[in-house]
Design a protein that fits this description.
Blueprint: H1 2-5, E1 12-19, H2 26-34, E2 52-57, E3 61-67, H3 78-92, E4 96-102, H4 108-114, E5 123-128, H5 139-147, E6 154-157, H6 166-176, H7 194-209, E7 219-228, E8 231-240, H8 243-250, H9 255-272, E9 276-284, H10 292-297
Parallel strand pairs: 1-3, 1-4, 4-5, 5-6, 8-9
Antiparallel strand pairs: 2-3, 7-8
Helix pairs in contact: 7-9
The structure holds guanosine-5'-triphosphate and magnesium ion.
Magnesium ion binds near residues 26, 47 and 48.
Length: about 300
């Protein structure tokens, strides 16, 4: 293929797992390095539930970042077991790992993730959210604390949110990747299809617009995804655990669900580059997060 031949002999490429405890900014970091919102983010822990590859290609390297769920130390459901398994599985199949920690504090949950880190694969620490550390002299002892956790190949302070030091992080990752032609077409941004991304964008708005209970009782299925000329017609169903959660999700006269759908549709139209007609239904499916059959059906 002509495109592959155009890359220099020392071009590097590989899969890079992004791991860490919940809410440290793994998905924000991946999106910032890819340059598009591929993976959903929110202030709430356990936003990411699926392994998702985000691809960034530059002149010297192609990075296939693998965003993973935040590693759980509290097991509340079978869903959580699936999420932790996704983290462990990604660690066994990559060329490098980026461990993300929060520059404001290292916790027991971070230490639990460090215990999972592979010995034979290079691990780089990204100390994220440095924008929140007003007193930069506080950063040095934090970096020393991180260095004591594991024999990292490099430690890079970053801000995923502000885009600070991302080139430095990529440069450190590129150093440890194998020499290889690109594994993905250079214009690809993710390994996931629009159907998956559509469901995720809806889930993101639920995480962002609702309180602390309902998002964790929710999953999204896409019933129909059709092209009608240039228009995408998408029918989605939001599943909740109880009827009371359905009422909360719908809101007064359906207003909350309408806001969720409107915001999700805007994200879809931006990423897909075309108009979207979106219809969303809410159904009660009791115990879906604790049933292997339901979890399999929803792609967990
Ligand atoms: N101030 C600041 N906030 C950040 C930064 N990076 C991420 N955040 C915020 O941290 C929160 C969590 O970000 P996510 O990217 O969803 O975190 P995550 O590690 O993927 O979380 P899970 O998928 O739930 O494990 C969001 O509110 C982000 O906006 C950063 O560099 N600075
Ligand atoms: Mg995430």
């Amino acid at each position: 293929m002509a495109a592959a031949e155009a890359h220099p002999d020392d071009f590097r490429c590989g899969h890079v797992a992004i791991v860490g405890r919940p809410s440290v900014g793994k998905s924000t970091l991946m999106n910032a390095m890819v340059g598009e919102k591929i993976s959903i983010t929110s202030k709430k822990p356990q936003t990411t539930r699926h392994r998702i590859v985000g691809i960034a290609t530059d002149a010297g390297a192609q990075f296939a970042f693998v965003d993973t769920p935040g590693f759980q130390t509290r097991h509340r459901s079978r869903l959580n077991d699936h999420l932790n398994r996704a983290v462990r599985d990604s660690l066994s199949e990559v060329d490098a790992v980026v461990l993300v920690v929060d520059a404001t504090r290292i916790t027991e949950a971070d230490r639990a993730v460090v215990k999972l880190l592979p010995q034979r694969v290079p691990v780089i620490a990204a100390v994220n959210k440095i924008d929140l550390v007003a007193d930069k002299s506080a950063l040095l002892p934090r970096l020393a604390e991180v260095a004591a956790l594991f024999p990292f190949a490099a430690i890079v302070p970053v801000s995923a949110d502000r885009g600070t030091q991302l080139a430095a992080l990529k440069a450190e990752v590129a150093k440890v990747l194998p020499v290889s032609a690109p594994l993905y077409p250079v214009d690809d941004l993710t390994d996931r299809d629009e159907r998956f991304l559509a469901a995720e964008f809806i889930r993101e708005k639920i995480f962002r617009l609702l309180g602390d209970e309902v998002p964790y009782a929710t999953t999204v299925g896409i019933e129909q995804f059709e092209m009608d000329g240039a228009l995408r017609r998408i029918h989605a169903t939001v599943y909740v655990d109880k009827a009371s959660q359905r009422s909360i999700l719908l809101g007064e006269g359906g207003a909350r669900m309408k806001a969720i759908a409107t915001q999700a549709r805007a994200d879809m139209e931006r990423l897909f580059g075309g108009k979207v007609y979106l219809e969303v239904w809410v159904r009660v499916k009791r115990g879906w997060a604790d049933s292997d059959a339901s979890l399999a059906r929803f792609g967990y």
